[in-house]
């Protein structure tokens, strides 16, 4: 059977499964069997087509629904971060990529602006911060700003601020996704100019080894929050086969889960900034280890593990 005919014969069924979810265990099982049969057929005759990709995603969603209906409510907290959130990362990997690219480009703009305009860093970071940092550099302690407060108070203050920034970045996506892109722009420009400032002072490598101890998790979480905002905005702009309000409800639900899911990452980042980053004279191996472990975790949890889970639902 040719692919267009296969799609024509089954699209009404697929659309009903997608638009009319059910919590009935028997109905879920029946739907899952039908979709996996269709998926097996598509993989055999159209292995690289969009139809196969679509059915794979639909099967994964039904499998997830069945899993959630097993009555294992006591493990709901664990299963959210172990299965549900990674599958959302897979589902919205394109939006995550867009958010990362936006942020990366904005960082480059900030760095180039700082390079060609010596007043740009002061405009972005403020005179007080630059003057204080210049004074710290003169004293031989360029990152002394991380040592000025009590560790515990610093931790709570940073955690609250980071969670606030991330949630604002997410919620702003309701403004047709542009709101979230604006906050990615704002933070990207700030980071790019901030990082260039230390490189211009001959402290580039040292700044990476100190600042990115907490920055790896913190910046990653902000990018993910930006992606959640793009998901929110795009669900309204591009409803596809759904009614616009239904699409917005679905997008908002998924985006909120992602925004809430990164809160533990922000808390760990705040812990590093409050209790660890201040030890600027720590051994090189320790700094590199913390930074590398954070980066490996983000790559694994947001990219590698979701893809493995998506391709092999039996990992559940």
TrEMBL record:
Keywords noted in UniProt: Membrane, Transmembrane, Transmembrane helix
Entry keyword Transmembrane helix: yes
UniProt cross-references to InterPro entries, sorted A to Z: SpoIIM-like
Superkingdom of origin organism: Bacteria
Keyword Nucleotidyltransferase among UniProt keywords: no
Pfam families according to UniProt: SpoIIM
Sequence intervals crossing the membrane: 96-116, 163-184, 196-213, 219-238, 258-276, 282-303
PANTHER family according to UniProt: SLR1478 PROTEIN (PTHR35337)
Protein name stated in the entry: Stage II sporulation protein M
